[in-house]
Amino acid sequence: MLMHPYNELTFRLNVDAISPLLIKEGRYTETHKKTTWSGGLDEVKNRMPNVIPISRATEDEIKKAVTDPAPLTAVGKLSFFVPGSSMRGAWRSHLERILRSFETDTAKICDPLEEDEREADASCSRVLTLCEDLRVPYSQSCPVCRLFGSTMQASRISIGDGEVDRKQPGRLVQREHVRINRRTGAVGGAPLKFFALQETRFHVDVRLRNFELSHVVMLGMLLTDLKLSNVPLGSGKNKGYGKVRATVDGDMTLTCFGLERPPDTLLRGVAEHPVEAQRKWFQDRYHVVPQNPLQLPAHKQWSPDKEAPWRFHLGLSFDEFDAAWRTTSLNWSKVPALAARCEAEVQ
Fold first, then answer.
1. Residues 6 or more apart from 72 whose CB is under 8 A from it?
2. Cβ atoms of residues 162 and 203 within 8 Å
3. Average pLDDT over residues 216-226
4. Do residues 7 and 255 make contact, with C-beta atoms less than 8 angstroms apart?
5. What CA–CA distances, in Å, run from 308 to 61, 247, 303?
6. Of 240, 222, 239, 241, which Cα lies nearest the Cα of 231?
7. In whole angstroms, what is the distance from residue 302 CA to residue 290 CA?
8. Is 271 helix (H, G, I), strand (E, B) or coil?
9. Structural domain boundaries of the chain?
10. pLDDT tens per residue, range 238-282
């Protein structure tokens, strides 16, 4: 969407692991434990963990750590992180569930996993591939796909990897689980040893570019639930893993691009462009719905970038941002139903 930048919102999140956090290391499997790395020795296999968190270590470093005589200590020295894709998936799913609660009889949010185009909530990725002469997939996408993207268009939001805070690295903990025979209900085999991170803080950089005001509202709802620890992350959620709390670190920075300073008390999205011709072009091409501009704090002012005078910045604390996004709404009644997507092309 758009061949030039219009606006941008950037901020950093602190993601704290309240309960054990486990995003599995895909390069370490049961095969590595049973044969490849253990050499088939029972003594080595018995002390090796079944699962460890994902890290930036090499395979040789991982092998050395999991086969160490004290694997919990050795694995704890690896460099861990949280992939941005893991947070993107969890956050997108949570936002989809919130918005589906607004629906009554008509589906307005697609199911990314539904590949049958005949279903009312078929994924935008599937339906839009069947649309003939579709030049602007954004115009036919559901609200969540407009924000997070699909196979037909890029995302508006960029989520970086979560890097461990050196001042609050937390610790690696071990949890043991048992295998249950589904027929008899009896315990079978040796306990499963899971290594997970706890009390660890991660820094995550987020950027939202060329946004509609509805994107700001959806982001505000998501950040509220992240702050309340309502969005679990990673594996083992039904085992008590994955409870995290995310809070904004410092100020959130709004950026507008252009040669004229934006109004100090208002925030516009792409649908509310101050130039009438440009605003009409956005609405016709991308099917965006204009909304009332967000009310910004009266004491805040846009300041030009010293090195790039075509950029104007304005900083908001989370509380100020939280108050601002609540001054507008999603205009849910004006969000088109999914059935209207390329109706003539999909039979």
1. 49, 172, 174, 195
2. yes
3. 96
4. yes
5. 44, 30, 11
6. 222
7. 22
8. helix
9. 7-23+83-165+200-340, 24-82+166-199
10. 999 999 999 999 999 999 998 888 877 888 898 888 777 788 888
